[in-house]
Design a protein that fits this description.
There is one protein chain. By secondary structure, the protein is mainly α. The longest helix is centred in the C-terminal third of the chain and has 12 residues. It is elongated, with a radius of gyration of 15 Å.
Length: 48
């Protein structure tokens, strides 16, 4: 992937090999511990 865009620099992101939809409960178990706060803030924002 070229990143930043139009920079000519090619970066690899091998950890992103697919995407999927999960329920909130399952998503909280699958994501990295450091991302759980982001998920909680997102849910809060969507509920208000």
């Amino acid at each position: 992937m070229e990143w930043p865009r139009n920079s000519g620099q090619i970066q690899e992101y091998p950890e992103v090999d697919r995407g999927a939809w999960f329920s909130l409960d399952i998503a909280q178990k699958k994501i990295f511990k450091g991302q759980r706060e982001f998920l909680a803030r997102l849910v809060n924002r969507l509920q208000s």
